[in-house]
Each structure stands twice: as C-alpha cells, then as structure tokens.
Amino acid sequence: MNATVSTDRTQISLVVDKAVKEKAYENLKRAGLKPSDMFRDVLHYIATTGEPPIKRELLSAEDRELLIEAKKVLANPGKITRVKLDDLDKL
Questions:
Q1: Is there a contact between 82 and 38 (Cβ–Cβ < 8 Å)?
Q2: How far is CA 91 from CA 66, 69, 72, 77, 82, in A?
Q3: Average pLDDT for 30-39
Q4: Could you read off the pLDDT of 49-91 as tens digits, one per residue?
Q5: What is the spatial distance between Cα 63 and Cα 49, in angstroms, rounded to a whole number?
Q6: What global pTM score does this model have?
Q7: Could you give the angle at the alpha carbon of 11 between the alpha carbons of 9 and 14, nearest 5°?
Q8: Residues 6+ apart with CB under 8 A from 52
Q9: pLDDT of the residue at 4
Q10: Separation of alpha carbons 82 and 76, rounded Å
Q11: H helices within 1-91, ranges in order?
C-alpha cells in the first residue's frame, strides 16, 4: 500500500517490550519491510477504511472450538425438537 506523502507531518512514539520490538523488527526485515513504512501503511489503512487491519480476540483454545461449533449449528440448525424443562434430564 503506498500512502500519499504529505509535507504536513507528525511523529508518533510508543512504548513496547524490548524483546517484542526486536523480534518484530527482525521479522519485518526478513519480509523486506521497514518498521516506519509498516506503521504508516497501517495508519493509512485505518484512515481510509475506518477499521483496523486486525482484530484482537482473547479466546482460549476451548472457547475458539466452541465458537466454531456454534457457528456451524447456527448455519445449519437442522430439525428443532421442543422439550419441556422437566424432560431435559431424560435426554
């Protein structure tokens, strides 16, 4: 993504764990990207689309599996069987 370069610029700084920064910069370099270009592209994407390019999901592996199964059932619910609360222990 090529962002249009403006003469009206500002600087952003952030604090991050040193080990995370070093590993991320190493991976960016391996991908042929400079960190400043990557951050500019992400900000340009957000400014253009109104949405972040990633979603933060805090799910355990078990919750993720349950969510996948729930989506499958909701997509194809099959036959609905009506039961009374008193009959649930018999199922």
A1: no
A2: 21, 20, 22, 18, 12
A3: 95
A4: 999 998 887 888 899 899 999 999 899 888 877 888 888 877 6
A5: 30
A6: 0.54
A7: 155
A8: 42, 45, 46
A9: 61
A10: 17
A11: 18-30, 35-49, 61-75
